[in-house]
Design brief:
- The complex is a heterodimer of chains A (about 325) and B (about 550).
- Chain A has helices at about 55-65, 150-165, 180-185, 200-210, 265-270, 285-295, 310-320, and strands spanning about 10, 15-20, 25, 35, 50-55, 70-75, 80, 85-90, 100-105, 110, 135-140, 170-175, 195-200, 220, 235-240, 255-260, 275-280, 300-305, 320-325.
- With about 325 residues, chain A is of the alpha/beta class.
- In chain A, the strands form 3 sheets. A 7-stranded mixed sheet of chain A has the order 7-8-9-10-11-18-19, covered by helices on one side. In chain A, strands 1-2-3-4-5-6 form a 6-stranded mixed sheet. In chain A, strands 14-13-15-12-16-17 form a 6-stranded parallel sheet, sandwiched between helices.
- In chain A, helix 1 runs antiparallel to helix 4.
- Chain A is globular.
- The model of chain A has no long low-confidence stretch (mean pLDDT about 90).
- Chain B is α+β, with helices and mostly antiparallel strands and about 550 residues long.
- Chain B is built from 20 helices and 20 strands.
- In chain B, strand 18 (about 500-505) and strand 19 form a beta hairpin.
- The mean pLDDT of chain B is about 85.
- In chain B, strands 3, 4, 5, 6, 7, 8 and 9 form a 7-stranded mixed sheet that branches.
- Chain B has helices at about 5-15, 20-30, 35-45, 55-65, 70-80, 85-90, 110-120, 125-135, 145-150, 160-170, 175-180, 190-195, 205, 265-275, 300-305, 310-315, 340-355, 375-385, 465-480, 535-545; strands spanning about 215-220, 230-235, 240-245, 250-255, 280-290, 295, 320-330, 335, 365-370, 395-400, 415, 420-430, 440-450, 455-460, 480-485, 485-490, 495-500, 500-505, 515, 520-525.
- Classes of the chains: A alpha/beta (about 325), B alpha+beta (about 550).
- The interface between A and B is medium-sized, with 23 and 25 residues.
Chain lengths: ~325, ~550
Amino acid sequence: MKTNQEDLIRYKDGNLYCELADVWIDPSKPVKRALITHAHFDHFTFGCEEYLSTNETAILLKERVGDNIEIKTFDYGEEFKINGINISFHPSGHILGSSQISFIFAEEKWLISGDFKLQKDETCKKYEIVKTDYLISECTFGLPIFKWDETNKVANNISKWIINSPEKTSLLFCYSLGKAQRLLNEISQTDFKGNIYSHSSIYKMNNCYKELGIDIKNTIKIENKKQLDELKGSLILLPPSLSKGSYLKNFKNIQTAFASGWMSIRALRKRSGYDKGFAISDHADWDGILEVIKKSEAKNVFFHHGDSEALSKYLVSKESINVLSFGK
Amino acid sequence: MSLKKFSELFGDLDSINSTNNKIEVLKNYFLSNEPIDNSWAIYLLTGKSNKRFISGRYLKNLFSQIYEYPQWLIDTCYLKVGDSAEVITLLLKNKTTKKNKKLSNISLNELLSKTIPELSKLNEEEKNLEIKNIWESLPEDNHLIFNKILTGTFRIGVSIGLITKSISKLINIDEEIISHRLMGCFKPSVDSYEFLINKNINLEELNSKPFPFLLANTFEDKIFKHSINDFQFEWKYDGIRIQLIKRSGNISLWTRGQELVNESFPELVEKISYLKDDFVLDGELLVWNFKDQIAFDFSSLQKRLNRKSPSRSIQIKYPIIFIAYDLLEINGRDIREITLENRRIKLEKYFSKWRNKTDNNINDIFRICDLIYPKDWTDALTLKEKSRENNTEGLIIKKKTSVYSSGRKKGIWWKYKVDPMQLDAVLIYAKGGSGRRAGLYTDYSFALWKDQELIKFASAYSGLTNIEIKELDKWIRKNTIEKFGPVRSLKPEMVFEISFEKIQTSKRHKSGIAVRFPRITKWRKDKKINDADSLENAYELMKKIS
């Protein structure tokens, strides 16, 4: 086995780094050249000299952080070369524009899965199976207790939750980018036909999705606080950051829910302080991670993001897959 | 109606925070379901005497066997979830492939009075097969309820009080009556439900049941404004609260947890049976040190509580005493509505009558509590501080003009506990919590200095705020020295103020001491580990008290 220093991609200062190409993947501090897998803020940092991403990711990022960053964009599947290494973006199914990144050098294939999911999501491209020798996978939900329900089952539950409390305003908390748009798309296909309002941070992302050709339901932007007491029977999408603090005081007679994969566990649901939890995630569940590992045909797997102890032990003992750890 | 409906009720109650809404949901459930299933629902929700058919460990082993699942993986999942029934439910998802869910419409009654009791009759192999079969025949949404019934773990924030309120609303009868009817052993049956919702109050039926307990509130400073003469003072004993009922020759000992404990204390039942009158007494049961005339520690009482039909030698080794502090009913007359002052007069009068019949010889097992007479509030405070000397927890203060109502009614009884003892200790181990605290490190062990070494002296899990718990959890993950299963040993760095009620020598512990009710009262971020207390300090504290 090779030493860490010789690996095409390794951990450096807590980030994924490809030395031969001198590129960093979703770096957390300013670097010369950054490959961005998707437009969530925990995968982006200001101050890099050059950013590379898919077209959609670039547009979403600029909408969020402003126009004055340089981003070189590529289509899914389009190969480009840096220092002789072939690099390409492939759909990861996480959110619009999200990607896995493939590195090929001297016939050795490396794949960074990025954040990914296999479940139905009509607001972004489906996860593409990419064969590889080395796979670096996320492991946010790396325990078998995480098994997602079908997306439309969750959406129907949300719809029932709203419809069964017509005298209340239903506040659904969800991440502004990705989750909110996926929920909008799904909820519009359920029995709930009432008004949907969006917080401005979500509204902005909705528009961006629409401009990129994604068909999602129109929502009403929450403009001022006056209208807030006339909202009973309708659904309001809010970012989780507003669940604590004074914002909720604007509403009368509400019920609250949080849409997140963590909500599949009762203890976490109770601790979260929301009335209800809907377990829906843009990350892969246990079976999803296993499926990707198998279909990628990778002989060697690394994990980052999340607690991978159990999954690693399982792969080694049950599936005879080599799990490597990054030297830190 | 069905298990399915009950599963939905469980889901609804679990996702409602408002008490009023919960009551509304329960009321509607009772209205729309059969009496027998309602009866089972009440039985399950109040967790009255939920029987455990199999242990959580057994359930996990069984799943591991059937689905060839590594045990360690189930255990890892458990750390995140904190409830065996729920872990197995989550793992069962998509595992049961049978299309024909023939138990889709099984009634709660059939499941609880037939299917599950029949499981207990099977040998292990048959039982395992049958559980697997039930899993496969039940819709997934009902697995959690089934697993929870199997393992006897229903804790979902539905208190007896809540059930009482919903039934009371349902039939428009005072909560006291319902709470009265719900006391004691609730046997699920059509009759017991119909008795519960009976609009006619039948005194005879209510006779065998205890009165709802009147509970003391925490002391409030505003009481100082009142004259000391308005109140009756008693020592606060550290035993178990008991309502002792003798009606038409039948004796019942009820705990506050509504358990009938006659079998654990046969010598008391026997002695009481010699008395001629009928009565209901409220009092404290203790294991008594007859030499020094003080109570033994609670741990001695536990030796008696956990044992049914104690042997003669146990009865001698841990002699019990019942100390009555109130008389609620005498020869069929409910006197809860007369004032405490007058109830006390009656209690004293009857007690002296009973005691003077020498053949009763009740002195060594049944007394009435002594009253204390502080001159003024300063004197009361001084007495409170002395309470450790007689192994009590402080004072109970009762308004002389009060009547005996139920529950934690304000402005009637107060407990005035002696200030806790405290030591500053170093956090050395952390363990994952369960239930609501699953996935977080919330069970902590603390150490004191002995020379240059830190010796574990207490474990505590309560006292931190949720924000502090999260912060500490983060710190723990970053400062782990070693992991042993769910336990992590930690870099000694954090100092906490630990408060406790009692300190005594113990051979079982390496530190040589044991403390009661240890809890965290302050995160001493201002202190370095060298500022923490030593075992020496703990011994001194112990000397000071004894």
